[in-house]
Write a structure and sequence with these properties.
This protein is mainly α and about 60 residues long. The chain has one domain. The protein is about 90% helix and about 0% strand. The chain has 2 helices and no strands. The chain is elongated.
Length: about 60
């Protein structure tokens, strides 16, 4: 896992939390929820290849 991925995840977390706070204080709680879900989906989209690689490595470990 590259260090840049960790920085990207941290940046998305910071931006999403700021946007959610601004949206909640302006009375748009539905939009805040959708923003947090979009951030979560984006981060999961970045992590899926690494999770797949982990499962492949574990499978190769037990098959041999």
């Amino acid at each position: 896992m590259e260090i840049s991925l960790i920085f990207r995840i941290a940046a998305v977390g910071i931006l999403v939390s700021i946007l959610c706070q601004v949206l909640k204080h302006s009375g748009r709680e539905e939009h805040a929820f959708l923003t947090s879900m979009a951030g979560l989906i984006l981060v999961l989209y970045w992590l899926v290849p690494y999770i797949y690689e982990l499962f492949e490595t574990i499978q190769d470990l037990f098959v041999q």
